[in-house]
Every structure is written in structure tokens, then in C-alpha cells.
Amino acid sequence: MRGMLASADLDRFAGQFVWLELNYDKAENRGFLTKYGASSTPTFFIIDPKDGQVAATQTGAMSFAELTEFLDRGANGVLVESQTPADAALKRGDALLAQKPEEAVRAYRKALRLAPAKWPPRELAAASLTVALQDSHQLQECAETAATEAAAMNRDTMFGRTVVAGMWCLDMADPAPWSKTQGARLEPLAKEALSLPATVRDHRDELYRTLMYLSLAREDKAGAAKWGDLWLEELDAIKPANEEERSAVDIARVENIQVFGDPNRVLPALVASERAMPDSWNASLRVAQMESAAKNYDLAIAACDRGLARTPGPAGRSWLLQTKADALSQEGQTSEAHRALEESLEAARAIPSERSRESNIKRIEKNLGQESVR
């Protein structure tokens, strides 16, 4: 996204926006993240300078067309004095999405209920509704809504966004009759989204990943391997334009293998990235994760130490130390593993995002408890 923003022709928005980019892992941004509830990256907000309220929210990567629509929507939310009831409900849903997704669901449903027949943001509201249902763990309603709404949508980025949310709700759910029924509706839509040039890279990665999970849920390892190979072939064909894109591709490689596959398949590319990005702790973390998955624990520990020397923020430091602790534990170095987990817990307490901070603390404390039992 950063590369697209740097090169996109946004001249018509000149003078309307003050652009602000915040690092998710810097302590000085904790106040903003706490106030606005950003818990995933990337998350985009348009904030009304008059009262500090959110005029529009969008999570995940966007195409250029989607970005300009988002900016128009935010500008209208700030500058237009009188809005239709449907537009006002959509704006309220955006304001609530990051922190109160249950209430955002009600707002988006209200927007769809009040909308006139050919309301331009209808597909946006439907896509946002599925994301809010996912975030509030209303999994059955999320999958059902995604399948119904996506089938009737134009085949553009909103279609991909809606299908992704529905697929994740399937994967998050326990097996049930409804999940089998909705899976039969959503899986063909996911395959269709992968065939479309309009489907952005982030959504493609998530679609491949969820298709792999669904295959494994059916005990279909051959199917999971097929989707994993297709995904890796796409990733290997990408020639990254910058370090941000290179990191994104490497993260997708690791996510692929973490679902199903051989870590040695991606290690050469990850090692090459670490050499190409000597200041990136993230590159070291990816190498460490896959070396550990390949049971090369000494190499995983060394990669973690290289990453820790690259001055990561609290989240990065916590993840590196957790990965190191796991490798140390696998090598039987229990006291060293315990010490690494304690250091990881200390780092986690400084993570700016409340949701990320609490989930990391909970996971580390659980692992510390397990270490104590041993």
C-alpha cells in the first residue's frame, strides 16, 4: 500500500487531507491506537478535524479505485452538512468498526435497510457488514451474509473483500451442518475471486490460505498441497519493488508453510531477503520461524538474536523472544527458554495496541505456566 500511495495520482484530493502514517509498534502511538482501536495492519481512518470522530474506516489493502472511493466517502462525511439516513448509518458503522464491531453490525444493517434501490455504497456497506460480523465472531451469520451478498456483487475488490471475510468465518468455526452448507456456497466464490485481476494481493493471500485450511478440515492433504503450491508459484513470480513489498511476500510464504508444507521450500528466499534487508528484524523473524519449523533450532536461535540486534519495537521484540524461547525449549534448554519468555512478557506489556498487547500477554503467560509445570 505504501508504494501505491507514493505513486498514485491523488491530485484532486490536494488540500482536503493531512496525511499521517503511524507505526503500529512505536510506544508514542499508543494513545492514538487506544483511542481509535486499530488492531490490524493496514487500517485506514479518515478523521474529522472538528471533533476527532472517525468519518470513514477501511481495513486491509485497497486497489487504487477503492482508495479513491474511500477518500471521497471520508471527505463527504466531513464536508457534507446533510446526509441521507443510509449514509449516516454507514458513517456510524465505520466509526464503530475498530472498537465495537457488534454495534457496527447494527449500523451497517440499518444502512442497508434504509438505502434506496440504487444506493452507490451498497456493496461497500455489505462488505463492511461481513467484516464486522467476522470481528464480532458472529461466524454463521458472517458466512451466510458473505455468500448471499457476494453472489450478487460486481466482480471487483468489494467482492474479494466480502468472500475473504466469509471464508475466514468458515475456518474459525467448529464443524457444523451450517458450515458445510455455507462452505459449498463460498468455496466456488473464493476460486472465482482468485481468477479475477481485480482481487488485490492481500486478498489473494488470504483466499489461498483459507482454501488450504478448508482442505485440511476435510482431511484433504492433496488439496491443501495443491492450493499451497499455486500460492507459492504466485509469490515466487513477484519481483518486489521495495522492502515493504518484499516483507509482505515473505510473510505470505511463512503463512503458507505454517498451514501445510515443507519449510525448506521457502527458506532460501527468506535467507536471501534477510541478507538484502540488513536492518529488518522482521526478515530475521521469518527465517527463525522456518528454521524452527525445519527443526534447525540452533539456526533459529541465531536468527532471533540477529533480529533482536536490529532494534525492533515491543511487538517485534516480543515475537522474536517467543520464537527463541520455543527453539530453546525444543533443545532442552528450559531455564534459558523460561528467561526468554519472561523478557518477551516484559516487551509485550509495552505493545501500543491494546488487543495485540493483551493477546500476547495471555499467550506468553500460558507458555510460562507450561514451562513451570515441566
Mean pLDDT: 91
Largest sheet: 2 strands, antiparallel
Secondary structure class reads mainly alpha
- Poorly predicted residue ranges: none
Q: Which bin fits the share of residues in helices?
A: 55-70%
Shape: globular
- Tally of helical segments: 18
Order of helices and strands: HHEEHHHHHHHHHHHHHHHH
Give the N-terminus to C-terminus distance in angstroms. 45 Å
Order of strands across the main sheet: 1-2
Query: What is the β-strand count?
Result: 2
Radius of gyration: 21 Å
- Strand proportion, as a percent range, falls in under 5%
Question: Could you explain the architecture of this structure?
Answer:
- By secondary structure, the chain is mostly helical.
- It is built from 18 helices and two strands.
- It has helices at 2-7, 30-36, 64-79, 85-97, 101-114, 122-135, 139-151, 157-172, 177-194, 201-217, 221-237, 243-259, 267-276, 281-293, 297-308, 314-330, 334-348, 354-373; strands at 43-47, 54-59.
- Strands 1-2 form a two-stranded antiparallel ribbon.
- α6 (122-135) packs antiparallel against α7 and α16 (314-330) packs antiparallel against α17 (334-348).
- The longest helix has 20 residues, at 354-373.
- It starts with a helix and ends with a helix.
- The model has no long low-confidence stretch (mean pLDDT 91).
